[in-house]
Amino acid sequence: MNRRKFLFYASACIFTPQLASAKKVEYEVNYSDAEWKKRLSALQFAILRHEGTERAFTSPLLKEHHKGVFACAGCGNQLFSSTTKYDSETGWPSFYQAINGALLTKNDWLIGDERTEYHCAKCGGHHGHIFNDGPRPTGLRYCSNGAVLKFIPL
Q1: Is CATH 2.60.40.2470 the right assignment for the domain spanning 3-153?
Q2: What pTM was computed for the model?
Q3: What residues are annotated to the active site?
Q4: CB neighbours of 81 closer than 8 A, spacing ≥ 6?
Q5: Which of 121, 143, 114, 119 is nearest to 130 (CA)?
Q6: Are the CB atoms for 144 and 78 separated by under 8 Å?
Q7: Which sequence spans correspond to the domains of the chain?
């Protein structure tokens, strides 16, 4: 990355209007950072509470194909049905549809381009981003951090 690109991306992150006007949302499940750290692994804490990401192709849930539900590892909120999971070949578990009411979204400018971040509607934990390159019927790809998903077999 050259200096010009670096300065562009850095200024986009610092001067994003979203940051100045972000509203504080109260979630049903709400803990202090200290309590979250006790409840989660270091990787889960970094992802759920600080919008981190896991390395591609490292999630054991990437190859999970049994019938069940994928829930938030932070609070247990059911986010995705296994019937909507597909192999996007991106290295992260991907889904084309979420369970109704399970997620909230916001605009994310962290890398300099606008993306749509999604997070758990119950605890506010960050799970990934939504892209418009998914399969039918929605055309969406919910790109998920498998480290913060819990698979519940049916």
Answers
A1: no
A2: 0.81
A3: 143
A4: 69, 70, 97, 99
A5: 143
A6: no
A7: 3-153
